[in-house]
Amino acid sequence: MHQPTIQALFNHIAPHYDGLNHWLSWGQHLLWKRMVVGWVDPQPSQTGVDLCCGTGDLTGLLAAKIGATGQVWGVDFSESMLALARRRYAHLPIHWYWGDVQQLPFAEASVDVVTMGYGLRNVPDRQQCLREIWRVLKPGGRAGILDFHRPQAPWLRAWQQWYLQQVVVPIAARLGLAAEYEYLWASLQTFPPGDQQVQWAQACGFRACHYPIANGLMGVLILQRP
């Protein structure tokens, strides 16, 4: 799917995005996002960037750790998602930026921590996105990337397919979003497993490891710029 089409998709689902995420993950997506923030370990007064920030869950968690003495940015290409994020987190000093995560608006080695939730899978050039993360991170800076993962166990892969196609899509269809959520399973088929993500990251110069979580249904790629 081309980037303008993906962009239109996220603009369309924005009003229902939070509610569906919470219901369809049984509220666990918030726990997984807190795990990502814990792994990158943001500190007060640092600079943090949340890529593909959507409605701002991870961005808000970063801001709570970094505080008013630092800087936190949320970057997304969906204007509708950013509009919701601005309203949800108007009480926090977060900078919101409409743009492409393949061309970040930050100077080289200017960012301490980067997070990304359910975004890398939707980026047309995933390796270019990783190169941009490497470019903007300071030496020693860390990034945490959360996304769906294809579990190794055949029965779990079958369950994941059943759940996405027979539960997620029908629920989304009641909101007129069947086609948009059918894309989720299709995108997962082209998303590389954790070991390939690690290889891509290492080719960029990162120290990298990948952790399957939620019984392998999700995964977190942890990066550090030496």
Strand content of the residues, in percent? 15-25%
CATH topology: Rossmann fold
Distance between the termini: 34 Å
Q: CATH-wise, what's the superfamily? A: Vaccinia Virus protein VP39
Radius of gyration, in Å, reads 17 Å
Which regions have little confidence, pLDDT < 50, spanning 5+ residues?
Answer: none
Order of helices and strands: HHEHEHEEHEHHHEE
Look at the structure and give the mean pLDDT. Answer: 92
CATH classification, class level: Alpha Beta
State the helix count.
8
**Shape field:** globular
Largest sheet features? 7 strands, mixed
Total beta-strand segments: 7
What topology, given as strand order, has the largest sheet?
3-2-1-4-5-7-6
* Second CATH tier, the architecture: 3-Layer(aba) Sandwich
Structural class: alpha/beta
Q: Helical percent range?
A: 40-55%
Number of domains: 1
Give structural notes.
By secondary structure, the protein is α/β, with parallel strands linked by helices. It has one domain (3-224): Rossmann fold. Helix content is 48%, strand content 22%. It is built from eight helices and seven strands. It has helices at residues 3-24, 28-40, 57-66, 79-88, 126-136, 154-173, 178-189, 194-204; strands at residues 47-51, 71-76, 94-98, 111-117, 137-148, 207-213, 218-224. The chain has a seven-stranded mixed β-sheet, sandwiched between helices. A hairpin with a 4-residue loop joins strand 6 (207-213) and strand 7. Helix 1 (3-24) packs across helix 4 and helix 6 packs antiparallel against helix 7. The longest helix is centred in the N-terminal third of the chain and has 22 residues, at 3-24. It is globular, with a radius of gyration of 17 Å.
